[in-house]
Design goal:
- By secondary structure, this protein is of the alpha+beta class.
- It has ten helices and six strands; from the N terminus they run αββββββααααααααα.
- The protein has three domains: 99 residues, OB fold (Dihydrolipoamide Acetyltransferase, E2P) (Beta Barrel); 76 residues, no CATH class; 75 residues, no CATH class.
- Strands 1, 2, 3, 4, 5 and 6 form a six-stranded antiparallel sheet that branches.
Length: 288
Amino acid sequence: MAYPIAPRPLRNLIIESENIVYGKVTAVKENKEPVQGWAESHIAVITIYEVLQGKIHHKGNVEVYFSPEFSCPMPAHYEKGETVLAFLDKEKGKNIYSTHALSYGAKPINGKEYSHYRNRILEMKTILEIKDEEEKRNKTVDWLILCASEESTRWEGLYELSPESDFMSFYDDRKETFSRNFKLNDDQVQKLRHLFFKINKFEYTDLGLVDLIVKEDDLEVLNFLTMHFKKAEKDFFWSGNFLMKKIADLSKRDDLKMIIKKKDEMDMLDENYEKKSADYMREFAQKL
């Protein structure tokens, strides 16, 4: 059975990847050579706009192996016409590249999003040069908060600030993961709290903020989560359980926890699973 690979947020990609480039996918073609790996069935041609790391020539073209198939683990995907931030490793003995960390290493982004990523990448490259480990750790925490401050890079920061908030951390057994041997100071928590209450449309990724800012009996956070769930309960079909559990835990209400329990006990192969799940979510929202 295939499993997802360990998540690779931005800091890890910078450390691990040979090359970081931003460019446009100008062509996609089938690989006519004998395929050695499951993610080599196609080749993307990327016209380079900027090189942020590595030895790839600026404004040249590179070819990158990929697969358009959806599978587990998920390979990198490239579509003709999209602009992409790509983390690439050169194939040994070949003039072609592979995407580091599969789908994590290919990020389709627009120009504004790229400016955020570019700034964070250059900052982290500087931080990695710091010799004093305590200074490096402190600046890394500040950098992760900067990542979390922009919607485009939010997951890149929150995954390392609060990895247990993301279900994908179940697959992360790497010893080099940034350890939680730090405590956010009051100013850092306040920055994240301010960011949290500015969210207009709540996403699954944003749940990582809750675990970082919530206080004991935090009615302000509870009311904010409740408002978002009631406003857009249908938008949370696949991530609703996570938000419902946050609300139930903060409210300490057994009736809400019972709805979640019944929803969790459903058989996902039941032909009426989606309808029943939506009914439980509606019941949960009505009790708020």
